Amino acid sequence: MNNSNIINNKSFQDNDELSKNSGSESDQDPKVSQLNIEENKKLNIEILPENTDKEDLSFKVIIIGDSSVGKSSLANKAIKNKFESSYSATIGFDFFSFFVKINNKILKLQIWDTCGQEIYQSLITNFYRNCSLGIMVYAINNRDSYEHLDLWLKEIKRESNPDAKIFLIGNKCDLEKERVVTYEEANIYSEDMEFSKFFEASAKDGINAKEIFIEAARLLYEDYTEYKSEISSSVSEKTNPELKITLNKNEHKSTCC
Ligand SMILES: Nc1nc2c(ncn2[C@@H]2O[C@H](COP(=O)(O)OP(=O)(O)O)[C@@H](O)[C@H]2O)c(=O)[nH]1
Ligand SMILES: [Mg+2]
Predict the structure, then answer these.
(1) Ligand 2 (single-atom ion) residues, CB below 5 Å
(2) Which of 118, 140, 162, 137 is nearest to 212 (CA)?
(3) Other beta carbons less than 10 A from residue 52's beta carbon
(4) ∠45-49-53 over CA atoms, to 5°?
(5) Can you spell out the DSSP letters for 109-161?
(6) 101 in helix, strand or coil?
(7) Which atom of ligand 1 sits closest to the CA of residue 175?
(8) Of 164, 98, 81, nearest to 127 (Cα)?
(9) Ligand 1 and 34: CB distance under 6 A
(10) H-type helices in the chain, by residue range?
């Protein structure tokens, strides 16, 4: 049974009746993760194969930012462990699924990747609708992509749920010699704008690519469990599937390449 619920005005699906056995396998990335490894260990997080056909919870995640900053590359690296050095622009949208098991719940992140050429026009409303988390990407060697973040932020805040969590990602951190955006200035911007997370990444070298999505899953799972515990004493979820609550939880943790 799929119960459609709303958390922070964002939709998610809870398939409690599904079996917890997924036939999963651990995905070992040789690169050192710099993100909350200890927290993730406590939560017992396991990445599941891309072809997993079950989920208990499903969340919509969107990736936005200028063309060529590496949005598709980050998703491809994280999910398929592939990196293409030749550029092929995303036409319209691409979709990826990222499955993670957290404390025996299978989470599916439905990842919507866009071409990024629409910065001066609104993307179709469908793209932002029911988004639980936005990943805003710039490239550390592309000043324009950093300067455009305000426009992307305005867009996501206008079109999406105002409480949606937003990550800021400075991609291409392998190109240190070409760097034109410092870690420090982006970190200050991230704090000023109250992003949930900021970190630098490299789709090319596999630095923090997978961790972006693990962190997304972890935060969304935490919101979900908070939501469940808030309603468990007084409200039956089955009779109130559209219950809306507001959670005020801002975290500001940062890591750098
Ligand atoms: N050096 C380097 N190049 C990257 C990285 N990520 C993406 N690229 C390259 O940047 C170009 C654009 O990447 P793509 O993922 O298509 O960008 P998108 O338009 O934002 O989806 C491609 O040529 C990629 O190979 C990275 O982390 N490091
Ligand atoms: Mg793309």
Answers:
(1) 71-72, 90
(2) 137
(3) 18
(4) 105
(5) EEEEEE----TTSPPPHHHHTT-SEEEEEEETT-HHHHHTHHHHHHHHHHHS-
(6) strand
(7) 1
(8) 164
(9) no
(10) 37-43, 71-80, 125-128, 143-147, 149-159, 183-192, 209-232
Per mean pLDDT, which range of 2-6, 146-150, 178-182 is the poorest? Answer: 2-6
Q: Give the nearest ligand 1 atom to 86 CA.
A: 23
pLDDT value at position 166?
Answer: 96
| Alpha-carbon radius of gyration of the chain | 18
For residue 73, the CA-to-ligand 1 centroid distance in Å is: 5
Identify the residue whose tokens are 């293409």.
Answer: 84
Query: Which pTM was predicted?
Result: 0.78
Which atom in ligand 1 lies closest to the alpha carbon of residue 202?
A: 27
pLDDT (tens digit per residue) in 167-206? 999 999 999 999 999 999 999 999 999 999 999 999 999 9
- Residue 169: its pLDDT value, please? 98
Q: Which two tokens stand for residue 251?
A: 């975290």
Question: What whole-number distance in Å separates Cα of residue 149 and Cα of residue 153?
Answer: 6
**What residue has token string 């992509």?**
145
Distance 4 CA to ligand 2 centre (A): 30
Residue to mutate, 62, 73, 202, ligand 1, most ligand atoms under 8 Å from C-beta: 73
Sign of the CA dihedral running 50, 164, 10, 162: negative
Say which residues have a Cβ less than 8 Å from residue 35's Cβ, sequence separation at least 6: 199, 208, 211, 214, 215, 255
Q: Is 142 in contact with 180 (CB distance < 8 Å)?
A: yes
**Cβ atoms 45, 218 nearer than 8 A:** yes
